[in-house]
Batch of 3 targets.
Target 1
Amino acid sequence: MKKHIISLIIILSAMSIYSQENFEGIENNPLVKEWKTPFETPPFSEIKNEDYMPAFKYAMEKGRREIYHLKQVKQKPNFKNTIVYLENSGALLTRISGVFYNMLYCNATPELQEIAQQLAPLMTEYENDISLDKQLFERIKAVYENPGDLNSEERMLLENTYKSFVRSGANLSDNDKETYRRLTTELATLTLKFSENVLNATNAYTKIITDKGLLAGIPETALAIAHEKAAQKGSDGWLFDLSQPSYLAVLTYADNRDLRKEFYIKYNTRAYKDAFDNQKTIKMILKDRYELARLLGYENYAEYALENRMAEKVIRVYDLEDELLKYSLPAMQKEIAELTDYAYSLGFEGKIERWDFAYYSNKHKSSLYDVNDEMLKPYFKLENVIDGVFGLAETLFGLKFVSNSEIDIYHKDVKVYEVYRQGKFMAVLYLDFYPRDTKKGGAWMTSFRDQKKTGNGEVRPLVSLVMNFTPSTENKPSLLTFDEVKTFMHEFGHATHAMMSDVTYSSLSGTSVPRDFVELPSQLLENWATEKEFLDKFAFHYETGETIPDTLIEKVRKADNYHAGYASCRQISFGLLDMMWHTTAPDKIKNVLKSERNVFDKLEVMPIVKGTCMSTSFSHIFAGGYAAGYYGYKWAEVLEADIFARFKEKGIFNKTVADSYIKNILSKGGTAKPMELYINFLGREPKTDALLKRSGLK
């Protein structure tokens, strides 16, 4: 009896550590209470900003208690009572995080940004308390050393769990653990600050033009959008800003060279020597990442990051980049020379500047192939494109989409669908297409909940695609550029990875794979965008209903490799910049711009634009999880080109190939090594030939 009393005192004492907050009434918090909504989707309309912090603190306390109880288990550590228990712990915190962090990127307000800054150190402390817990790690290590009889997915979960703790400082000394805590806390705040600076710098610049003559060349659709934006601000004229559709309309079409130059410089000096300058933030991020990697026994952060990737070593990244550059660089040099000659033929003098490139490229491409975005856009009404992409998913993967207006949404522009396969519910899909001040730039796939299996059945994912496409106007529907169509298909490819997931553990589901493998499904789906059999199914003129002409499709196919060398070199240069930042000792980085130029100058074919800096807005690597991983886009491009060659060989709608792709890759998530999954599907390791041939570079 005395023993039980002592144990109770210990438990109560431990619990009191986490009971300093007053959680009275927390059960009524919409983030905490049970969601009695269709498919347990988030009740966005009920959630207020003031709900987040109390919910997070409560969920963290709940998670800590779960870990405490795990450590008190008297039975010998095994896979179920330790690894599976740990996998399932913190479920409430995961749910709340899924809502908050997605809102932070697609519907951020200054209030949410402030909450995120307050939250960053708390979340990092919580994560560190778990990963640096010696007693907990001893249990995990005991299972790792004596795993028992496990299947392949269980072995992968065990390996990932053990390595995650080691890579998160579990083997460090007490003093080094404190250093680890400091570095990770600083990084959480710094990366968040970087992202906020980019968003704020992007929103800081707008230009209202009242003289329509200055806008010559810009298509009427873009002008209509700009006119509506100005009206919303209570102004006459046309408002252009640095959102993607607006910025690209100026750079691609404006005859006024000074206007193009102004927008190019404004866009490429975002968060550089302005009110939201990210230079110091970059240096601090790199310093902390370097120290973190060295603390854990790695030469630099790139070596640390690559350990769990397909590439594994820095040298393999450089080998890939070098092999592709052998073909890409000469092609780019030839392309720029041809573009310059073309510009001269139109009366241009001097050298092609950065703000001239898109303008003359568009004209040159149109002259070569008699095709341009304005010719294509009438066939890419957004609603038709959605139908086309959904139809492709049905043909290849057997997916059916049912619109549901009853599911709560976080913004009026969001569309929601239930997804089914062979009568089985597979997912909820949210589509968020248009730019707004509270949304960061670019396009991405995310999820509010991941797939997993439980003792009571299966939890299916809640998937979201967020983009910044050309919106509709008062007189015209949303008509997409061909690049926007491909972007939609890219992100939808990610969505298929999440929706087709069929694994037991959520940490292994869907897109929970190495960074240089995660882009495979997304980039693969882009291939169908130039296929006649696909386009014929949905590309109808929004006014006449006419199917996109075969001649136009053929022009699109031929034009798809226009400036393939430039596009390849551009991606490679970003990957090389990323690797430079994460292989260089921070004391060698004195000047952000000079360090950047040392990389870009080696591939430069146009005059340098003084005062512009790409790194200060390079959110992928400084705030988006792609640190020492941007090369992954080219790596995955090699993989997907190789796989699409199989589809082309057997038929782009071939069910046997598609079913094998589902079975061996899409459904598997991270339950096996990527190379193993790849070989299971294709029967061999990847080769670069398919990519180089498809791009016309070899």
Target 2
Amino acid sequence: MSHPNSPAKNNTINTLITDNIDLWTSAIKKRNAVGRGSSKKIELTGIKKLRELILELAVRGKLVPQDANDEPASVLLERIAQKKAQLIADKKIKKTKELPAIADEEKPFELPQGWEYVRFIDVLDFSGGGQPPKSVFSEEKQDGYVQLIQIRDLGPNPQPVYIPKDRASKFCTENDIMVGRYGASVGKVFWGKEGAYNVALIRIHNDFNSYISGFIFQLLKSPLGQRLFTGISRSAQAGFNKDDIAPSLLPLPPLAEQHRIVTKVDELMALCDQLEQQTEHSLSAHKTLVEVLLAALIQSKNNAEFQQSWQQLNEHFDLLFTTEHSIEQLKQTILQLAVMGKLVPQNSNDEPASVLLEKIAKEKARLIADKKIKKQKPLPAITYEEKPFTLPNGWETARFYTLFYDLKYGTSKKSDYHTKGAPVLRIPNVVKGYVDSSDLKYSELSDKEKGDLKLNLGDLLLIRSNGSLSIVGSCAVVDSNHVGFAYAGYLIRVRLNSALYYSNFISLVLRSKLIREQIEKPIRSSSGVKNINSTEISRLIMPIVPLLEQHRIVAKVDELMALCEQLKSRLTDAQTTQLHLADAVVSNALNEVI
């Protein structure tokens, strides 16, 4: 059996990395929250774990073989102790409080021959930055000014500001190692820049040259190093101080081995960079291919073109729809094909939409005459240029107000979690595309308000205001379980005669790109809230479809959406498996070399 740190074992580590490239590149997950200034909605988790594994092996002494000819770390520590004693004797530094000797139970793992455990404060130190007043900031560099380095300036989107040099208290260079001290950036490790640095950063001091700078950088970025900055009882906003970090244990390798480790880590991180670029390029190419093939379906001019495009898609279906984005694109394409009349064949025996529109108009006139609804204000006729595409035989185009009898805003009265009063549906109850009353609130309403806000079977509830653009215009159809409920002010109720027009088809149309583009175009924003009003909803240009065909389309869309959900479920399961495999490979790798 080879020694744990022999060249043979290190070759095994290299093989572990290269033999699992498919796993590292396929373990991907959706980001919970996209960072400021970032457009990436996915995380290459496998490659991230590979980077962490490389650093963990490096700081444990498992990445490169030890050399018996290296000066051991114990000799380096003796020199440091002598230098400190001399500086104290010369009164150049103060004697620090002596910390307890390192006990065996403190040591997180066994170190290789020639390495030593040290407490942070025995070999390193740090100093926090200064915070001059904003009144001295300048966006332009001037004579006698230096850049004030802030955390944002060490990332991909710097926003430099400058301050008078005589107002700066702490300075750094591009060779310094900086660490975030507050908020979401606690523990983030950066190379510095030339200038002064602010209070949200600390600069690492390596006054006794116990480490080379590159190794400190890798050590602090490693999972072991990151644990220095976690588990501190004070809040992230309060940051950390020297007493929090001082007693923490660090591994100290021989200086010569530190150089070899840094070289090896740099080599493997370059490989990770290549894998990341290749994976992102592959995902981007896949995304483009899916979009092109789906667009060909939508843009097909006749049935022959449609069938040809579908054949191209069908031949590679299992390879194309392997990401969450591609499945969402497929869903949107299904909806678009549905509203264009390309999803199910037309039936010449269906009553045409023109007759349907006449029936709706006649029914409205009767209700107006009976004073059950108010006469609607006429809207401009649809111009030829406004029509989005050529309609199938038997279809028509009309504005949305042509179909419904009335729109009504919901109550602005406060609702709460109790059982008194009327149940009130809110945005959380309809945002999923169906009515969900699991998080229900109630409001004290008068009998008149209850009557005005009473929901009927087949009513549509549209979200008219929200902080998220994608949610505005989302809707749900009121089912038999929610008849009689009231609804809140950020919702609009749309009522139509379901015997003449199918509410579920309207809901489908409103989710399609055809309508989403019309909804999002006029949306106004006030304090970050997006709004659409009843007039803008009334103006929406809708395809008017024979009633029987509406039912066929909804049935087909439901069938295809169920298949999409199955694809999504299988994808989620596969991604979870890949992530678990990546975790297992990392865990096994660490166990094998310990």
Target 3
Amino acid sequence: MIPSPIADLVPSGTLFEMYPIGLSFLGEYLERHGLKARVVNLAARMLEQPGFNAERFVARQRPGAFGIDLHWLPHCHGSVELARLCKRAHPDIPVIMGGYTASVFHRELLDYPEVDFVIRGDSAEEPLLQLLRTLERGSDLGRVPNLTWRDRASGDIVANPVSYVPADLDHIGRNYAFMVRSAARYLDWRGVRAFKGWWSYPLTAVLTVKGCTRNCTFCGGSASSMARCFGRRGVALRSPPDIAEDVRAICSFTGAPVFLVGDLRQPGDDFAVEVLERLRRVRPRNHVVLELFEPAPDEFFRLAGEALSSFDVQISPESHDESVRMATGKYYSNSAFEETVERALEHGCGRLDIFFMIGLEGQTVSSVRETVGYCARLLDRFGVRVHPFMGPLAPFLDPGSINREKAGEHGYTVLLHSLEEHRNALLEPHWRDLLGYETRWMTRQQIVDVTYEALLELNRVKEASGQITHRTARDIDRLLRENISLLGRFDAAGEIEDSALKAAELERIRRDAGKLRAESDLFKRELDWPVESPRFRYSGLARLALAQRGAA
């Protein structure tokens, strides 16, 4: 694939080689209940070790079952291919899949003979444990909650009810301690990495909630999506003491930033206040990143500044245009948003990341251009501690999201429907042809063109403000223009009639894309929050590795 900006706003690369934090909780839960578990990020190993042979690695394993994540839709190609690899090496070992995307496409996944089971819902810990014990005993699969399976006698696909939807997160345990112990047990410190380059930038995350009270139209984790697809009709919270303990444990072994997943104010201010009070007692040295779904009051930032030595904030207003923002389900004004920025900075926020998306309902080409101008005004008013980012709403509409389920009402045309169509799209060299949608206001090609136009201008704006150096701005400008050129060459190659000449040009494009991909980490550096020294605290890692398995 020709490098693209579709993953520039997440820590992983364009292949999305990052696993969800839920896998570590699954492993911890199984171990706490007497089973051995191991998490391995094969994608990251393949990217960082050119000689790594994934097929040979899988063939050497002898587990009771293979579990494969399909949480994010961009993983749909690799997850099915990995299932095939597992079955080819071990025909008799069951392959189990789970995650948000797997839950939505559970019946289609069972059409692939390599997939034996799908666990649905947002909390697979107990259903997975019950499935493994059921397989061991040879008992009734129909009694396992949240399970979709293939009846061997009839060949029918059976979907058990999604009946396991925990009201809180008290059942999950110390996932980071599990991951460290697992790495030590299997002498595999490479396999546990969250994404390529994690050892250099060991970003960590702490889960605070499952479910959501909001209905952002583009999100597969919105309240309506969770109720419709996963049976969740309310949020499940991690207890404030457990959140604080996770932060303490992370700070014991790394100086990396700690990202608190979910807006602490979502269940109410009392919850946020208690979490911050618990964190004040821990007094973490690391940067702690707070996520906001909407503007927050002065008191929240005052408490954050008192509790945390260093805190950063992340918020996604999506567009400068209030009508576009409200169409996404975010009902706040620019003035309320800007007051939040001002309050956060006044109370010591070290850095405030602001995310704007391209491809939204009601958003036109001219609207995207105006958003860049708004970014410039934010930098003029608040200074370089404010970090605006822009990127395409890509590559697919979230499974189960309002925009996908009610596409016509929201101005979207869904171009990819089945799981197999999404898998084939991931093989397209041009990210325009990977986009699973277009809107009433912009075609796929217009989304591509205005994305590059916006990124080039935002790069210039950041240089002018002093947020990035002239050298960095020059390098980013060059990489973006080379990207545009490669995409143009690819389209032109499609018009070449001579097959030999076309093949030669496509091979040159492939080589040039590889060289460009090797430099694409430059786009990620702007996302990095500060890492406190030392990057790793090996005494803390040793203590976690030797820790006894405990209850949640």
